[in-house]
Amino acid sequence: MTAIALAVRQSPDWDALSRDHAAGVPIAPERFAANRDVPSFPADIEALIARWDSLARVPFFACRSRLKAIATATWQASPGLHVIAHAAVPAWLATAPPDCLVMFSDDDDWLAPDLPGHLATLPLMGHDALVFPQVRTGLECNTFAAADAHPAAPIGPLRAFAYRYHTNNHIFARPAFAKASAADLGEHMSASEVAGPAGLRDLLIPAIISATSKTPCSASILTNTVADATRFTKTLDRYLTTLKRLPIPQAHAWLATPLWDTIRLFEQARPRR
User: What is the domain range of residue 94?
Assistant: First the structure.
């Protein structure tokens, strides 16, 4: 079976942060603030987290720790998947077999079960990247797909790709890393920018084998979520209603478990009526 690495992008140690927060240990902002220039990352993250904790019944760090656990459970359903840190990709490639594959992911993204087995059936030979539809759950749920690779059973309305690659809807073959650096390929926006100049060749398929979960505590929408108590409750209510009403086609039944685990988490976080 082809060796596949799931390279998890750099993120805070949510488990340790949650334990320390519960124990009353002071937490320095350096432990959770982005250490690189991320346009969507709020500059006042410390104040936003404090506001979340004043409104929610599940503290912010505990919530993020649970979201990571939900995602990790989907990764563990893929036997033989090598979960490594983003920075470890070059070292992993140095000892991996020639036909190895690398998929980059955030710590709260979901994967279809038995990902290696599924990919083994795809004709990747001659291509640098495998690109598939991007399911995104959140305040709105959509499936982003290329025009000539629409899935037979999308999750929510179909949307066109905004970028060449999205959060976790692509997998790189070893030849891609001879054309572009692991640092550039690791973030979907930079990978989208360098793919053309580097001459990467994509194979587009219609299979849905991953999803990204955008929750009310995602950094990009946290400012709006905690704007005030009324907005907070309305945002969580809208989010929960959207997820509960989302039809899951039988072909993608694997999505139901992480979806409902997420629903239960935010029902617990929602302020009491």
Answer: 1-273
